[in-house]
Design a protein that fits this description.
By secondary structure, this protein is an alpha+beta fold. The protein has 8 helices and 9 strands. Helix 1 runs antiparallel to helix 2 (36-58) and helix 6 crosses helix 7 (190-211).
Length: 291
């Protein structure tokens, strides 16, 4: 588990700067009574604007600056973040052993990335995932019992946790495999939604306990070369892990049998990035307020 600190701007931060500036403003107004209104208004306003400029240019790290930009213009900020992530993946991809199913009749795209925050410098990408599915979520869920999806996550960090820690992920995958079971509440009652989430977490914890000890060795192929992996099958979903060329690979499957799966290395990252961009354009269309 990794933790990081991130500065998020709030209006009271700038209000506090303005309030602090009132003391020297009052002194300046007393020393120069003819310009007291300029001092009383100008100094606090200058402090607040200065705080904003500082936060946009040197606030802790690049993530902090992006956060502020997102607050100022949410739509443009999200678009910028997505573009930044795409650029990070493109730069880091050659260092990862990315895999995809050798035979797939749906969409294959870069699913996303994980990175280690670096204060004052560029973030270090630690994981890149490849997703193979049947299309955007609304289309996939129209056939609730025919959902098929694979996610192959490649990490350059060693797997340092007990295998059973992954069973929480499998319990969550089982829920996605059966979206018609115990669906979330559709009303706007926040308390009801929170109770549903709490019950879901309890159910997933219980299910992870039931799946413990079910790991087994099975075989897959990577570029036609046999590889032994560790696998747990669940109800309509499965999760597996193995090491390849010094990197850790995790497979998350819904409606797809992993045992005997044929995989191959990704040779054209750019086409998968294009597919990711197209998918995001379908699921996220930025709109400015008032348009």
């Amino acid at each position: 588990m990794r933790t990081s600190r991130r500065w998020e701007p709030v209006p009271r931060f700038y209000a506090t700067l303005g309030a602090i500036a009132l003391a020297p403003a009052a002194l300046a107004a007393w020393l120069a009574p003819r310009r007291r209104w300029l001092a009383l208004i100008g100094l606090p306003a200058t402090a607040m604007v200065g705080g904003l400029v500082w936060s946009l240019t040197s606030a802790f790290d690049r993530r902090g600056r992006r956060t502020i930009a997102r607050h100022l213009d949410p739509a443009a900020g999200i678009v910028r973040e997505l573009a930044d992530e795409e650029a990070r993946i493109r730069l880091a991809a050659p260092r990862f052993v990315l895999l995809q199913p050798a035979d797939w009749d749906g969409k294959i795209l870069i699913g996303g990335s994980a990175f280690r925050p670096a204060h004052g410098g560029p973030e270090e990408v630690t994981e890149v995932s490849v997703t193979a599915d049947q299309g955007p979520l609304p289309d996939r869920h129209q056939g609730l019992h025919d959902l098929r999806a694979l996610t192959l996550r490649t990490s350059n960090e060693p797997f340092q946790f007990p295998e059973d820690n992954l069973l929480w992920e499998l319990a969550s995958l089982e829920r996605e495999a059966h979206p018609d079971r115990d669906p979330p509440p559709t009303g706007g009652d926040q308390a009801e939604v929170e109770r549903w989430f709490a019950a879901m977490r309890v159910a997933e914890r219980r299910r992870a306990g039931q799946l413990a000890g079910r790991w087994r060795d099975v075989g897959v192929t990577v570029d036609d070369v046999p590889v032994t992996i560790r696998l747990v099958d669940g109800d309509g979903a499965a999760i597996a892990r193995f090491d390849l060329d010094g990197q850790h690979v995790r497979i998350e499957a819904i409606g797809v049998a992993i045992d005997g799966l044929a995989l191959r290395r990704v040779t054209d990252v750019e086409s998968l990035l294009t597919a990711m961009r197209d998918r995001r354009s379908q699921t996220f269309v930025p709109r400015r307020p008032g348009r």
